[in-house]
Specification:
two-stranded antiparallel sheet, Aminoglycoside 3'-phosphotransferase, Chain: A, domain 2, Aminoglycoside_PTrfase, 317 residues, 14% strand, 2 domains, Aminoglycoside phosphotransferase domain-containing protein, Phosphorylase Kinase, domain 1, Kinase-like_dom_sf, globular, 11 helices
Length: 317
Amino acid sequence: MTQLLLPAVPYDATAQRPSWDDLPSALRSALEARLGAPVVGASVSGCGFTPGFAALLTTVDGTQHFVKAAHLSIEVAQWYAQEAKVTAALPPGIPTAALRWSGELADHVVLCFDAVAGARTPSLPWSLPELNECLDALTAAARALAEPVPQILALQLDPFSNVLDHALSQWRSGQAGPDPQRDALIALEARFDELTRESTTFVHGDLRLDNLLIDSAGTAWICDWNFLGHGPPWFDLLTVLISAEAGGLDVDTLFAEHPLAVNLPPDALDAGLAAILGYYRYSGARPEIDTSPAVRGHQRYYADLTGRWLARRQGWA
């Protein structure tokens, strides 16, 4: 297990978002009309890596609404529109905030969700009880998605081969950069491709610490479903556990004993770690983004965590 390794920027302070007052007056007026009452309070979310508006709004009648908005001219608007489609199609049994409504207001894509009481991003290093809550939420989501409902099938979501070809092939393409273990990493990445290419189940696809919430009762919720697609259920498990490596928890055992990892080949975990490491090595070396100043640091941090976990398992460290 690794020693404590924390990110340079806490995950509840990674976003660079507009405030309520920064929004165009036409959008604020349209939102208040749609919400049915004037907004008297706005708590902007500090987590995430997009410049879209995301805030808990309180109206004068005391009702709370979690609202996301992005101008139609930026890519985030497409992500928010996809998130609305996916969230509306999710089957019962998934611990996620309900989508109240979505649409276009004043040239913005807008989503309004139920407010999660006391919602906060899990803290690093993870406490084992909070991590187990999140892993239980993941299990519930996987079970609910195991038999996809017609609404999900109608979305015609991407096959996992798209993810493999565009994101999880960086060692074989040479984009992940140099590494003393490059030959072994190429072989492991190819093995992950072999194990997962034909996956027909559905996964969140972007399940990180900042896409999980803990409410005031200590219950875990999963958010930000815009990357739902086909994939192996244990992929989401692996991407969650990468951040648990930061605090020295026994991530090997947590993975091996989780229901989603039952009956996996012995080399599946290492294959997955190698593929994810290649993605983060490549992404973390790309140019910085002005509207998301913390994202490259996050990717380099996750590369460090993933690389340490894999090196320890392989005996490279």
